[in-house]
From TrEMBL:
Superkingdom as given in the UniProt entry: Bacteria
Positions of transmembrane segments: none
Protein name in UniProt: Luciferase
InterPro entries, A to Z: Luciferase-like_dom, Luciferase-like_sf, SsuD_RutA_monooxygenase
Entry keywords, A to Z: Flavoprotein, FMN, Monooxygenase, Oxidoreductase
Gene Ontology MF term list: monooxygenase activity; oxidoreductase activity, acting on paired donors, with incorporation or reduction of molecular oxygen
Domain spans labelled Luciferase-like: 38-362
Length: 394
């Protein structure tokens, strides 16, 4: 069987089986929660905050393994981490480039965890990746994890990363067309019972490919992070979970103003092809017993902002569209990190979670400044209030 694509089009057929088609899949069980709860692992130096204020946060595997096991103990639904390819020195300052690979490090946790879903961020267009490789690796991890592993599909937005692999950066929307080919071929390899051939617009070809064993629940979990029209169209056709950003500022008020229309747009893209998706947002949480203490911590973080990397993750030339609405905003607390920041008492944090849910957010992929103690504080002080508020099942 051969699959061909028309030039310049994102094609897609929603007939492929997804984990949500199986009531006993780990994803289906997690979606019974009123709000998905995830942890955004800090497998890169500096975590998510460009500050020199001392903290325990560490990029090494043992630290992130411990975070994952603690998150699982607390009942979190999923973890994942970023993927980046950077030259020597990284973004500079605390973001010095030391980082584990997301695919390998998150996948390595499949054998030491039991319930939590594990999502590996992967640039599917970079370098030597062939869908036959990833289909086999993914099916293997699906069996090791019992259907808990998945892919956060990213196409790359920094010119330096494409150039590292010997390319010029592929045009933004074209990247999603190529990623659509890649994901459709993955799904055919995961679900077809016969050998499968492919001839499309990508540099790789497939002649009589076959993968066994087949995944437990149709295919591994698929996630993508996006804010552009092309990315949202891709998400509607292929993703189970869409990692969205606030199209406005990092403060909660700006986010709540912009998110309802944005999340509706994302969900409508899926409904238009007969599917449903869940949205996931990344707040960085700073919480203490009193509001004064919480804001004092935030002030300390900002006071120690690392001037060696003034733009942080935006240091290199990027054509990402998800953050465009945030340009030119003068908000010093944006330096604490995360797509949005939530600062306050446990009660105030949970109130903000409720408002985010009302704005169309289906899941919270949390990050912290000092991960280990902040995650402990979250489990002891915030999670019980989330259950009382109906955000998490008891």
């Amino acid at each position: 069987m051969t699959l061909a694509h028309k030039p310049g089009s994102i094609v897609g057929t929603p007939f492929f089986k997804a984990p949500t088609d199986y009531p006993d899949s780990p994803l289906s069980k997690a979606l019974q929660q009123p709000v998905l709860l995830g942890l955004f692992l800090p497998i890169q130096a500096g975590g998510w905050t460009n500050s020199t204020l001392p903290r325990s946060t560490d990029w090494r595997f043992d630290y992130n393994r411990d975070l994952t096991l603690k998150a699982e103990e607390l009942g979190f639904d999923l973890v994942f981490a970023l993927s980046q390819w950077l030259p020597k020195g990284g973004y500079g300052g605390v973001f010095n480039g030391q980082a584990l690979d997301s695919f390998v490090s998150v996948a390595a946790m499949a054998a030491i965890t039991k319930k939590i879903m594990l999502i590996s961020t992967m640039h599917v267009l970079y370098g030597p990746w062939h869908p036959l490789h990833l289909a086999k690796f993914g099916a293997t991890l699906d069996h090791i994890s019992g259907g808990r592993w998945g892919i956060n599909v990213v196409t790359g937005h920094r010119a330096v990363e494409h150039e590292m692999f010997g390319w010029n950066r592929i045009e933004h929307d074209r990247r999603y067309e190529l990623a659509a080919e890649f994901v459709e071929v993955l799904q055919r390899l995961w679900q077809d019972d016969e050998n499968f051939s492919f001839s499309g617009e990508s540099s790789w070809k497939l002649n009589g490919g076959f993968v066994t064993p087949k995944p437990n629940y149709g295919r591994p979990i698929l996630v993508n992070a996006t804010g552009s029209d092309a990315g949202i169209a891709f998400a509607g056709r292929y993703s189970d979970i869409v990692f969205v950003t606030s199209p406005a500022g990092s403060d909660i008020a700006s986010a709540l103003e912009a998110l309802p229309a944005h999340t509706k747009k994302v969900k409508d893209a899926a409904l238009g092809v007969g599917r449903t998706v869940r949205t996931l947002l990344n707040p960085l949480v700073i919480s203490r017993p009193t509001e004064k203490e919480a804001w004092a911590v935030a002030d300390e973080i900002v006071a120690h902002a690392d001037s060696r990397t003034p733009k942080g993750f935006q240091t290199f030339n990027s054509d990402a569209q998800a953050w465009k609405g945030r340009e030119g905003r003068d908000d010093p607390y944006a330096k604490v990190g995360g797509n949005i920041y939530l600062i306050g008492t446990p009660e105030q944090i949970v109130d903000q979670f409720v408002k985010l849910k009302d704005a169309g957010i289906d899941g919270l992929q949390l990050s912290f400044f000092d991960f280990k103690p902040d995650l402990e504080f979250f489990g002891e002080n915030i999670l019980p209030l989330m259950k009382q508020a109906g955000l998490r099942n008891a």
